[in-house]
Amino acid sequence: MNRENLLQFFKQLKPLQRVVIQAHDFPDHDAISSAYGLSFILQSLGMKTLIVYNGEIDRISLSNMVEWLNIPVVHCSKANLNANDHIITVDGCIGENNVTDLPGDEIAVIDHHTVTAPNSLWFADIRPNYGATATIIFEYYQMLKIDMPMKVATALLVGLNIDTANLTRGFCNADLKAFITFNQIADLDIVNKICRNSLIHYELTNFEDTCKLVKQSEGIATVLLKEPCAKNMLGVLADFLLSVNEFDVVIVAIENKGALQLSLRSECPKVNVGHLLRKTLNDTRMGFGGGHSHMAGGIVLADNTQHFMEHDNAHFAPFVKEIKALRSLEAAF
Q1: Rounded distance, CA 294 to CA 20, Å?
Q2: 144-188 confidence digits (pLDDT tens)
Q3: How many structural domains are present in the chain?
Q4: What residues does the DDH domain cover (predicted)?
Q5: What's the CATH number where 247 sits?
Q6: In the 8-state DSSP scheme, what is residue 148?
Q7: Which of 168, 196, 224 is the last residue of a domain?
Q8: pLDDT score of 228
């Protein structure tokens, strides 16, 4: 991405009555912080913005971030969107199953996932090698020489820290540069408070259930949770299991309206869980999913859960079979 292309896109936005910035459904810290950072840029250039999302903000740390930093984000049902609105999707891509098609014209995508943007968009900036969309937004500030407010840097640093697990997974040199700059501007006490306070009391039962129900085979840990669990909590539990020395691939799932909601993690170099989900679910039309080599999420559609579980017991056979096949290739080389 170069400065001229970015400026040309912002010039196209100038005549609009407002610019809607949409985070992916059930947003995470990176999605909200990136939308917030982009919103400030556009406002500094004289535009009106509105940050929206669908689903729920279901992590206490994200709720705290929004409240403590006064981030102006609203649920799409309360946004009075209409067909004349123009929408920039941040940390997601229109056409993906985790981005609701809202009223209005989707004009741009800014994302760090492996996605394919529609050709009709005015602008697309997709960088799968980046650890967080927050880093892309950071580079916009650098290109345009816009001073970043403390609150924006605080939010973006939280987004970068959580998406990269404090720069321990899936990061690149650009993320390191952003991390250094954010640390010089952000309120580090607030950053640490947001990141530390990541659970509420009743969620401890999810960890208890995970420990009781986890199964393992050749380093692959699998769990089908029985108790209610927030969608974004699955990733927290998957990260928790990946910290166990004997596990290098993790599958955590919960039933949701007959479907299976999934979160996967990998630290095995040959097991790219983003590719694994796309091959096992998208290509077979048994569901949908995607993400990065080290972390991914997806859904097995209700009509196909019998391939992954029997009665109340999950075996995840299609995933396990593919993981073992990938490992055998690793051994062969």
Answers
A1: 31
A2: 999 999 999 999 999 999 999 999 999 999 999 999 999 999 999
A3: 2
A4: 18-159
A5: 3.10.310.30
A6: P
A7: 196
A8: 80
